[in-house]
Every structure is written in C-alpha cells, then in structure tokens.
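Postdoc handover notes: sequence design on the structure in folder B. Input tokens:
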C-alpha cells in the first residue's frame, strides 16, 4: 500500500512538472518576440492602458445614452398597502389593504428628452472618434520608435564595418611600419582611429538599447521582454499630392476633427434640451387596484376592484433653475465651438509641418545617397594609393571618416523620412496612398 502511494506521488509530481515547467521551457526556447510593423497595432490594442481608458470613456457615453433613452420607456411600480383606521369621523370600518399596479408613460417632453438623447448619441460618437484618435497617436508613436530601432540597428552595422575598416588600415600600417615605409605617427594615429571606432560602436549599441526600451514602452511591453524586429524602412514615396488635398483629407478623416465636430453637435442639442425643460410635459398614467378594499365610506363592496387612467400635464415654474441650466448649456456650446476651432487649426498646422519635414527628409536622402557613392569611391582610391605608397596615411583616415559619416547620415535621413511619413499619415488620419486615390478619383 505504501509502495502504491509512492508511485502515485511520483506520477503526480511528474505531471506537475510537465504542466508547470514545460510551458516555461517552451517559451524560453522560442526566444525573443519577433515584431513586424503590421503587428504594432495588435499589441497596442492588447496592452495600452491609455487606450483602455479611452474605451472606458466610450462605455460611459454608451451608458449615458441608455439612461436618456430609458426616459421614454414606461415606468412601472407595484405597491402593497395597508391602512388602519380608528375612530374615523366618516369611515365606518377599521382597515383596508390591497395591491396597486401603477404605470406612467411620457408622451410629450417639449424637446427636452428627445434632444437629450440626440446629445448623448453625439457624445457617444465623439467618444468613439476620440478612442480612434488615441489609437492613431499610439500607432504613430510606435512606428516612430520602430523606425528608430531599425536605424539604430543599421547604425550598429555601419559602426561595425567601420571598425573592421579601421582594423584593416591598422594592419596595413603595421606592415608598412615594420618595413620602414611608414612613420611611427601613422601607426599611432591608426591605433587611435581603432579606439575611436570601438567607442562609436559602443555608443551605437547604447542608442539601439535605448530605442528598443522606448519601443517597448510605447507598445506596453515589459522592459524584460526581448524584442526583435523584422522589416525595413519604407521606400521613398513616388509622388506627393498637393498640400491643399492633404488638408482637405485631414478635415474629412482625422478622428480629432470628427470628435470635436460631434461635441459641437452635442452642445447644440444640449442647449435645445435645456430650453425644453421650461416646456410642458404630458404623461399618460394608469393605476389598477387588484383585490383590494379601498377606503370608500359608502358602497364599499362595489369598488373592491377598479382601474384609473388619466393624462397629466406638468409645467415647471422653476424659472431661475431652468435659466441657469440653459446658460450652462450655452457655455458648454461655446466651449465646444472653441475646441473645434482649436483642433482644426492644430490639425492644419500639423499637416503643414509634417509635409515640410517630409520634403526636407527626401532632399536629405537624395543628397546623402550621392554623398555615400562619392565617399565609397574616394575611400577605395585612397586605400589603393596608400597601399601602393602614393598617398599618406591621413588621406586614408580622412576618406574613411567621410565614408562613415556619409553612411550614418544616409541612414539617419532615411529614418527621418520614414518618421515624417508616419507623422503625416497620423496628421491626415489615413495613408498617403488613400489621398492619392481620392485625387485620382479611386476612393470609394
């Protein structure tokens, strides 16, 4: 019996280890989390606390809409009562009891409830557009650091190649120095160049680590998660639409604009709803006493079960209270109008700035691409002439430094171009290709 229990314990321990440790081993074997640009939005929707907060605002607006719509639904109550009479001057029985079913239905509210519902619907739409605006901004931020990481990886690769070139130059210089063909100054200068190249490589790796940390923060990932990127920087756009078309597209598609416009509409409905509070309201009310003995002094048995139905007209005479609510609604409307005007100006300014940055980045890419070609050719010529003893060591160092700076500048310009394109798409609320499609009449 003890042997059987030991076997059972061993089996239990085995299954516990398999179920508890095996997934961790598999996760460890899978290694880093590989990300593509298309995966950024999924991670943002899954991990972003800011986006979750925007969703909660949308849920709150939806609940407010349900609350306003419930005012047009009938209000039903079921009441049980018991009255005790003693020495009453004209009721000649001691008590009555029963159950009453009451129903009240709003027929006309003077525009208060109808406009309150329209206001809640507009607020709900504004909340949805606000959530999409937050989502678009978080995506732009993630794309910005995604491109920054790609640039940092390219920077590390360039610095590594330049370190290899510096070490090769040092080797050639050492051979020439051993043959008496190069002075000691060239040898020392080559060693310093290798040290500088190693320092630049360490700095590039630090930039890469910082870029990955910022990307993880933008995606809501833990800093301990290992991330690897798959993808390249986007190619240069073939052609850009006029700025006026980008501005028109942004005014029609940017979520921030649409959200501000809906809040403006909500403010207008709020003013109408506040004005409707001073209008009369009409209710249809119904009351049915079930199996009761109501307090009738005479003919009591004839009224054991009866039903009442009537129309009720209610008019609020709280002039000062209604006026204060109306003024509050007008102030909210003014705030919404000013907010729409501010958002519109900010969006148009953002589109202009993004276009300026993109054009500037495109010019730098073209300029640095030509500079890289010229620097590579100059470095090859200088290295061949130095190996043949036809040029000095300083010529090689100078050409190598120029080549490294040109490659880094080109990579940085391409990164800035990609980031400018991401910002432009965020500012207009869509992709650059969609704007081209509208210009060509292809948009649906």
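Designed sequence:
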């Amino acid at each position: 019996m003890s042997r059987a229990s030991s076997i059972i314990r061993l089996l239990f321990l085995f299954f516990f280890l398999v179920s508890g440790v095996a997934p961790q081993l598999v996760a460890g074997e899978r290694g880093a989390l590989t990300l593509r640009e298309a995966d950024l939005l999924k991670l943002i929707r899954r991990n972003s606390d800011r986006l979750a907060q925007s969703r909660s605002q949308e849920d709150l607006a939806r609940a407010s809409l349900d609350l306003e719509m419930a005012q047009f639904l009938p209000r039903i109550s079921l009441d049980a009562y018991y009255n005790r009479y003693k020495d009453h001057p004209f009721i000649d029985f001691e008590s009555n009891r029963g159950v009453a079913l009451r129903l009240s239905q709003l027929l006309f509210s003077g525009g208060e409830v109808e406009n309150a519902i329209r206001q809640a619907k507009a607020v709900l739409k504004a909340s949805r557009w606000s959530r999409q605006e937050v989502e678009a901004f978080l995506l732009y931020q993630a794309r910005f650091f995604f491109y920054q990481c790609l640039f940092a990886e390219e920077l590390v690769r360039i610095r590594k190649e330049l370190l290899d070139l510096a070490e090769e130059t040092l080797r050639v210089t050492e051979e020439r120095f051993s043959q008496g063909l190069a002075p000691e100054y060239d040898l020392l200068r080559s060693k310093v160049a290798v040290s500088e190249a190693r320092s630049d490589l360490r700095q590039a790796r630090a930039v890469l680590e910082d870029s990955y940390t910022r990307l993880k923060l933008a995606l809501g990932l833990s800093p301990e998660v290992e991330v690897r990127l798959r993808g390249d920087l986007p190619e240069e756009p073939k052609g850009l639409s006029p700025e006026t078309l980008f501005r028109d597209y942004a005014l029609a598609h940017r979520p921030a604009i649409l959200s501000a416009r809906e809040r403006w509409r909500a403010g207008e409905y709020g003013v109408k709803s506040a004005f409707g509070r001073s209008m009369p309201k009409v209710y249809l009310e119904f009351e049915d006493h079930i199996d009761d003995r109501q307090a009738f002094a005479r003919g009591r048995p004839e009224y054991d079960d009866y039903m009442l139905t009537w129309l009720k007209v209610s008019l609020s005479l709280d002039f000062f209270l209604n006026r204060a609510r109306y003024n509050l609604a007008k102030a909210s409307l003014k705030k919404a109008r000013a907010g729409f005007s501010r958002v519109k100006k900010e969006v148009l300014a953002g589109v202009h700035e993004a276009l300026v940055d993109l054009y500037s980045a495109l010019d730098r890419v073209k300029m640095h691409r030509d500079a890289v070609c010229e620097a590579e050719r100059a470095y090859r010529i200088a290295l061949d002439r130095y190996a043949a003893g036809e040029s000095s060591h300083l010529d090689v160092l100078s050409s190598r430094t120029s080549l490294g700076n040109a490659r880094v500048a080109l990579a940085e310009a391409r990164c800035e171009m990609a980031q400018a394109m991401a910002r432009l798409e965020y500012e207009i609320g869509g992709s650059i290709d969609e704007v081209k499609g509208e210009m060509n009449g292809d948009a649906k």
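Context for whoever picks this up: Residues 3 and 9 are 10 Å apart (CA to CA). Don't rerun without checking with the PI first.
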